[in-house]
Amino acid sequence: MDSQTTEQRLEELESRLAFQDEHIEELNDVIAKLQLEVMTLGQRQREAERQIQQITPSLIKSLAEETPPPHY
């Protein structure tokens, strides 16, 4: 068996677990911030698309605006 005692191995495992728990919490914080940022960017994109649609005239005229072809 290893030269480490059961108590030493247990302490090492507890230390690793505490380290992993801390990193998992940090990763969860990052994910939450990124999720908020993605939602914000989605809202900004929708708003930009709406503004573009308002300021960009349609390339296709409505039927009322179309002039009849010359052969009519």
Low-confidence stretches: none
Count of alpha and pi helical runs: 1
Shape: rod-shaped
| Strand fraction | under 5%
Compute the number of strand runs.
Answer: 0
Overview of this protein structure:
- With 72 residues, this protein is an all-alpha fold.
- The protein has a domain at 25-54.
- It has one helix spanning 6-55.
- The longest helix has 50 residues, at 6-55.
- 0% of the residues are buried.
Supply database-style keywords.
single chain; 72 residues; mainly alpha; 0% strand; rod-shaped
Task: Walk me through the topology.
Layout lengths: L5 H50 L17
Summarize the structure.
The chain has 72 residues and is mainly α.
